[in-house]
Amino acid sequence: MNERVLGQAGGARGACEAPLDAVLEYAGSEPRDWLLLLKPRVMSLVVYTGLIGLLVAPEPMHPVLAAIAVLCIALAAGAAGAINMWYDRDIDAMMRRTAQRPIPAGRISPDAALGYGVALAVFSVLLMGLAANWMAALVLALSIAFYVFVYTIWLKRRTPQNIVIGGAAGAFPPVIGWAAATGSIEFAPVVLFAIIFFWTPPHFWALSLFAHADYARAGVPMLPVVAGAGETRRQILIYTVVLIAVSLGPLALGFSGILYGAAALLLGLAFLRHALAVLRDRQDGAGGSLSGDRPAKAAFRFSITYLFALFGALALDRLVTGAGWIPI
């Protein structure tokens, strides 16, 4: 019996050590590759919106604990990105814009990437719970699980609504930041969640318009591949209009002041101008762009600026006008 127990313990220890061994095997990889595995561009948006959620919360957080909470959000986003790259390594190898990622390029092994991602995910959740509170840790864990299991594994390869539903994964950070500061979830951070949720489709569909050949080659049912470029342009416009209305929610519901409201309106109108330019782009009979998708590329770039500026205006409004968030 003792031998059996020892054998089981050894097997369990070996299973736990396997991901670590895989990581150590590729420890000679360039540090840049391990950073790229975390999707740093995506991480920057996640960290930023999470920080704003923390800053506009009604209860101040100790600067050191706030920094740890933001670090946890960054690590969790990177963990989800690494696991996503592990799962999508086959289709990444087929797409020109992702073929040079560390896994398909052979610079990091799939097992090493998975072990790296899982370790960071577990560490980020535990650290958030210990440094902030377990409500924030729970939402952080939910965001990782949603991105990995709902978006990456379930939706991405099955439905053109992958970005619409899966967009919720990227909308969690301000809720996490708020929960880290307050230990609760109220209506205010849900409004911020909704803003990012409705921002995600026009942002990614603009990208998919000029990257549709890559998605088609990999068999990913993005909207331009399934419904065509023309329908994608119309959907971008529809979601942009909805986004403008939702972005005014903080002002309409008394969560912010006129400074944020003015910024939201001006930024929304600028986004609408880009969406209209995408809709009116010169097209062939099948809806394909005759301009090299210049309007879509411009809309994609502006969408990133839009989100940074909108959430920055929210924090500035809080600082300048002292507009308090009213829990409902």
List its traits.
328 residues; mainly alpha; 0% strand
Structure description:
The chain has 328 residues and is mostly helical. The protein has 17 helices and no strands. The protein has helices at 2-25, 31-36, 40-55, 63-87, 89-92, 110-131, 134-155, 162-166, 168-171, 173-182, 187-210, 212-218, 223-227, 229-247, 249-252, 258-279, 294-321.
Q: Quickly give the structural class.
A: mainly alpha
Low-confidence spans: pLDDT under 50, at least 5 residues?
1-28, 323-328
Number of strands: 0
Which strand-content bin applies to the residues?
under 5%
Q: What is the helix content?
A: over 70%
Q: Largest beta sheet, briefly?
A: none
What is the global morphology?
A: flat
Mean of residue pLDDT values? 89
Please state the CA-atom Rg, rounded to the nearest Å: 21 Å
* Distance from first to last alpha carbon: 59 Å
- SSE order, one letter for each helix or strand: HHHHHHHHHHHHHHHHH
SS element count, helices: 17
Concise structural overview:
The protein is an all-alpha fold and 328 residues long. It has helices at residues 2-25, 31-36, 40-55, 63-87, 89-92, 110-131, 134-155, 162-166, 168-171, 173-182, 187-210, 212-218, 223-227, 229-247, 249-252, 258-279, 294-321.
Topology:
Blueprint: H1 2-25, H2 31-36, H3 40-55, H4 63-87, H5 89-92, H6 110-131, H7 134-155, H8 162-166, H9 168-171, H10 173-182, H11 187-210, H12 212-218, H13 223-227, H14 229-247, H15 249-252, H16 258-279, H17 294-321
Helix pairs in contact: 1-6, 3-4, 3-10, 3-17, 4-6, 4-7, 4-10, 6-7, 7-10, 10-11, 11-14, 11-17, 14-16, 16-17
